[in-house]
Amino acid sequence: MNRKELNPGRSPQAAFGARLRSTREARSWTQEDLADRTGYSSKHISAAETGRKPPTLRFSRSLDVAFGIEGTSEAFERAYREMRNGVLLEGFPEYVAFEAQAVEIRLYEIGIMPGLLQSPDYARVLANSAVERGAISPELAEERVSFLAERQHAIARPRGPMVLLVMDESCIRRPVGGRKVMEAQYDRLIEFAEQPNTVLQIAPFAIGERRPLDLPVNLLTLADRTLMAYAESQMQGHFDRHIPSVVPQLTAYHQLQAVSASQAESVAMIHELRKGTP
């Protein structure tokens, strides 16, 4: 049998197909087995796995029933809606699937609070602002907020990952949503820093040209010590599992930590800003 190699980073549709194949094979099912359980032909299953046929809502729901994952963070219906509504940039669906499995998560953000630490009100203000600008629909705004809540829930598990966060000083100084929203967001950061499996650092403006990263980056370490990276610009995302290109990003992250404020100094900065929130 000819087996077509899949490239999940090529497009959201390709990522959907690659995850479909891996989920099926994890259960040792053939395409015919899955066809029997979904009511679709094995030819349809093959076309969906290789990205030749786009998934539909009905097909996605039938997969969830067959795999027993309805309503979970792994549901194919959720992946379909993300792809259909454009919630995620290319490469991000695959990144999120691994994020929920990671034992270490390293984050660096510029300008806004990182998604995994955004309070519900902060996240909603950002989404609503995008609606007001005409960038997204109200329905898509709701998708973004609910998806973010699911990501946060996925890592808040027993024996959760070690999460290391470096934020550019602009993240904590940029006002979003007014006083109450910012106070709650500062509280969220302080609570995060108090957890036994977290580290929070601020990269102050004063480090100037010593800042080794110019774009936000997410780095994952899995239980087998596999390294992965995700970075994005305004309109494009890139998920990377190629060690020669991921390792330099990890090195740059360590260099960033070295020139950033300590956790104690960073929390003190946040406390000062919270007291002076306009």
Q: If you had to describe this structure to a student in words, what would you say it looks like?
A:
The chain is an alpha/beta fold and 278 residues long. The protein folds into two domains: 8-85, 434 Repressor (Amino-terminal Domain); 95-114 and 157-275, 2-Layer Sandwich (Endonuclease, Chain A). Helices cover 51% and strands 12% of the residues. It has twelve helices and six strands. The protein has helices at 12-26, 31-38, 42-49, 57-67, 76-85, 92-99, 120-132, 138-155, 169-173, 179-193, 243-259, 263-275; strands spanning 104-109, 162-168, 198-203, 217-221, 227-232, 237-240. Strands 3-2-1-4-5-6 form a six-stranded mixed beta sheet, sandwiched between helices. Strand 4 and strand 5 (227-232) form a beta hairpin. The chain starts with 11 loop residues before the first helix and ends with a helix.
Summarize this entry quickly.
This protein is of the alpha/beta class.
Which helices and strands, and how do they pair?
Elements lengths: L11 H15 L4 H8 L3 H8 L7 H11 L8 H10 L6 H8 L4 E6 L10 H13 L5 H18 L6 E7 H5 L5 H15 L4 E6 L13 E5 L5 E6 L4 E4 L2 H17 L3 H13 L3
Parallel strand pairs: 1-2, 2-3
Antiparallel strand pairs: 1-4, 4-5, 5-6
Helix pairs in contact: 1-5, 2-3, 4-5, 7-8, 10-12
Beta-strand content: 5-15%
Number of beta strands: 6
Do you know the CATH topology of the largest domain?
Endonuclease, Chain A
**Tell me, what is the CATH class of the largest domain?**
Alpha Beta
What is the domain tally?
Answer: 2
Helix/sheet category: alpha/beta
Distinct helical segment count: 12
Bin the helical content.
40-55%
| SSE string | HHHHHHEHHEHHEEEEHH
Major sheet: arrangement of strands: 3-2-1-4-5-6
C-alpha-based Rg, rounded: 20 Å
Give a quick account of the main beta sheet: strands, pairing sense, barrel closure.
Answer: 6 strands, mixed
- Which shape, going by the Cα principal axes? globular
The N- and C-terminal alpha carbons lie at a distance of: 66 Å
Which CATH architecture of the largest domain would you pick? 2-Layer Sandwich
Report the mean per-residue pLDDT as an integer.
88
